[in-house]
């Protein structure tokens, strides 16, 4: 394949003109099975045959996606054990009076059982009103594009601020940021959730068939942000929504149909330790994106 011209707008550090080929090579040879076993998505895949259960499992797993992947999968397994694996039943049996004690004593990092119980109640109300989380996302998408879709999901998951409905427990609403509010969070967990639901190719589930994968935005976690910055896909030092748009636009130049397909590979290059995040010739030597990496700019061998 001939090198694709790289359209640079503002970046101080740019990848090489051959970056698309380098990235496709990284993607093609990546050990997906090794990394999928570590990824929280592996918790959701067993529910894929039941679309609603998969939506719920995905949202629980994405909400818990803070910290290392082993702890995330352990926390999801704890919820699974407490619900007997019946996630639809967990949602359907929530009420205004029983949500707070739905998973007593549950904790993962700063996420508590009462927050998970309230999330179950919010999901029940959303399904009653909208039928699916995809329909809710699409309502927002039609008004405000991808960011509008995330905003719609976020606001409904947070729940009402007044009226007779139960109020969200402390800290709950902060679990669901959206990109159109002050602070412009990268919204990593929600973009990750939507990627899982929308992308048709491995490792994702492709359950939201009304959303085109080309509109997805990259879930910019710390690993993805580190490598994206060092490959020159963004020049921003803050991991916020603008960096999400930069990186997604850069990846769209490589694959306009499915730009976020590279997320899993970029993220797990960091999680697995394949990328040491420092100049180390024993590891960096065979790295196919080394010609594009800021750490190796102007260098051909170990310094
Ligand atoms: S060259 Fe090294 S530091 Fe740069 S992306 Fe590759 S493995 Fe990471």
Structural notes for this entry:
Helix 4 (51-63) runs antiparallel to helix 9 (188-198), helix 7 packs across helix 8 (133-158) and helix 10 (222-230) packs across helix 12. The chain contains 13 helices and 2 strands. The chain is globular. The chain has 303 residues and is mainly alpha-helical. A hairpin with a 2-residue loop joins strand 1 (107-108) and strand 2 (111-112). 48% of the residues lie in helices and 1% in strands. The chain starts with 18 loop residues before the first helix and ends in a 19-residue tail after the last helix. 44% of the residues are buried. The protein folds into 2 domains: 1-30 and 217-303, Endonuclease Iii, domain 2 (Orthogonal Bundle), CATH 1.10.1670; 39-211. The site of iron/sulfur cluster has 12 residues, from helix 10 and helix 13.
How would the blueprint of this fold be written?
Layout (H helix, E strand, L loop, with lengths): L18 H10 L3 H5 L4 H4 L6 H13 L5 H15 L3 H6 L14 E2 L2 E2 H18 L2 H26 L29 H11 L23 H9 L10 H14 L8 H9 L9 H4 L19
Bound molecules: iron/sulfur cluster.
Give the N-terminus to C-terminus distance in angstroms: 32 Å
Give helix and strand order, one letter per element, not per position.
Answer: HHHHHHEEHHHHHHH
Bound molecules: iron/sulfur cluster
Largest sheet: 2 strands, antiparallel
Share in helix: 40-55%
| Total of domains | 2
Spatial arrangement of strands, main beta sheet: 1-2
- Count of helices? 13
